[in-house]
Amino acid sequence: MRNDQIESVTDLTVRLIGRTATQVMQRNVDVTAESNIGQDLGIDSLTLMNIVMELEDVFELSIPLDRLADVETVGDLAALINELRART
Q1: pLDDT score for 7
Q2: Phi and psi at residue 63, to the nearest 5°
Q3: Per-residue pLDDT reduced to its tens digit, 11-64
Q4: Which end of the chain is more exposed for a tag (fewer CB within 10 A), N or C?
Q5: Are 74 and 51 in contact (CB under 8 A)?
């Protein structure tokens, strides 16, 4: 995959994460790849788990809980989702 294709896939994933967070939190959530999930978005661990469960449905994959420990930003989460999608 070319670099610009990888960037556009990541951008799409970031937008879908934002849309999913907005649905789960029932308020508008503006995200960028650099958005810190806890600090910038105010998402606690329970809300994050609800968002992850929705994302698993959206992307039709399973996100291992141990892999979430390294996720700090929306970009980290998008990269993890894209990595898991590439394996299927």
Answers
A1: 64
A2: -100, 110
A3: 999 999 999 999 999 999 999 999 999 999 999 999 999 999 999 999 999 999
A4: C
A5: no
Quote the CA–CA distance of 58 and 53 in Å, as a whole number.
Answer: 9
Residues contacting residue 26 through CB under 8 Å, at least 6 positions apart: none
- Helices (H) then strands (E): counts for the chain: 4, 0
Q: How many CB atoms lie within 10 A of CB 4?
A: 8
Pair 31, 41: CB distance under 8 Å: yes
pTM (predicted TM-score): 0.89
pLDDT confidence tier of residue 2, bands split at 50, 70 and 90: low
Contact assessment for residue 27 and residue 47, using Cβ atoms and an 8 Å cutoff: no
Domains and CATH numbers, the chain: 3-87 (1.10.1200.10)
